Amino acid sequence: MKEKFPIIESEINSTLTFTARVATFIFFSIIIFTIVVFPIYDIFQKGVLYQLKHRTSMFMILMIIEIGTISGLYALVKFYFKTRHLRSHKIIVNEKGVVHYDSNDEIIKTIAYADLTYAEKISFRKDVYSEHANQKTLAKKLVVHIKDPKNTVLQMVIDMNLDLTVLKNKHLLYAHFINGIRIFRPDLQIDPIVYSDYYINEKTFQYDRTIRKGYLGGMIILGIITFGLIFLLFIILKILV
Predict the structure, then answer these.
(1) Average pLDDT value for residue range 157-173
(2) Per-residue model confidence as pLDDT tens digits over 29-52
(3) Paired residues of 154 in beta bridges
(4) How far apart are CA 172 and CA 38, in angstroms?
(5) pTM of the prediction?
(6) How sure is the predictor about 159, in pLDDT bands with cuts at 50, 70 and 90?
């Protein structure tokens, strides 16, 4: 009997998620106090009439900046809460593909294995590839191809991230989706470097923590060596100068 393809659901790392949200709150609070609160406090401390009489041009410029900043922040907050229900709150990878759910546990987006297609020959890309492997960006992006209603081949980035939320099993979700492509769409070509970019064991086609630990260890060692070389260069220049 053929083994059923398991369902994997996103799992939230509560500690890191709380830390990330607090850090974000502090960051925006500092920006608001720096750009909005402090200038207004300075204006009212010396008095509006004083500002108009002795610093008219600066006062008017400052008020325009204040109004623009407050309006922008208000629009940003309003947009965030208005579109919050359209954002992913849960991700599931199953035998159909990747399914994104909103806060009401309703499906908002599905990337099905059946909808994936071949890359255009002119692009010289594999059907499934990692954009990081092609050195376009430092961040890794898993790219697949789909067809729009006009039958045009489009690139689509598979994103296993949630807004202001850190997942415990993000790499597992990527690996499971890639394994699903291998099983349900064997006609599609997967760039071999995708396996190393997403820490997938090429024998078991499963997420392998040891590969990721080795990669992180290598990055730490590289960072130490780089810092050491910079420090050594600084010492040499200090001696010479």
Answers:
(1) 91
(2) 888 777 777 777 766 776 667 666
(3) 146
(4) 46
(5) 0.72
(6) very high
* CA 84/CA 82 separation, integer angstroms: 6
SS3 content of the chain, % helix, strand, coil (to 5): 55, 15, 30
**CA atoms within 13 A of residue 223's CA, in its CB half-sphere:** 6
Q: Tell me: pLDDT of 223 over 90.
A: no
What's the whole-number mean pLDDT along residues 212-219? 51
Question: Got the DSSP string for 42-97?
Answer: HHHHH-HHHHHHHSHHHHHHHHHHHHHHHHHHHHHHHHHHHSGGGS-SEEEE-SSE
The dihedral sign for the CA sequence 215, 220, 222, 223: positive
Burial-class residue 98 by CB neighbours within 10 Å (0-12, 13-18, 19+): buried
pLDDT value of residue 164: 82
Yes or no: say if 31 and 23 are a contact pair by the CB < 8 Å rule. no
Helical axes 56-82 vs 38-46, angle rounded to 10°: 140
Question: C-alpha 151: how far from its chain's center?
Answer: 29
Whether the per-residue pLDDT at 165 is higher than 60: the answer is yes
List strands edge to edge, sheet with 90-93: 8-9, 90-93, 97-101, 107-112
Q: Which of 152, 158, 160 is nearest to 119 (CA)?
A: 152
Residue 209 predicted with pLDDT over 60: yes
The DSSP secondary-structure symbol of 19 reads H
Are residues 102 and 87 in contact, defined by beta-carbon separation less than 8 angstroms? yes
CA of residue 89 relative to chain centroid, distance: 14
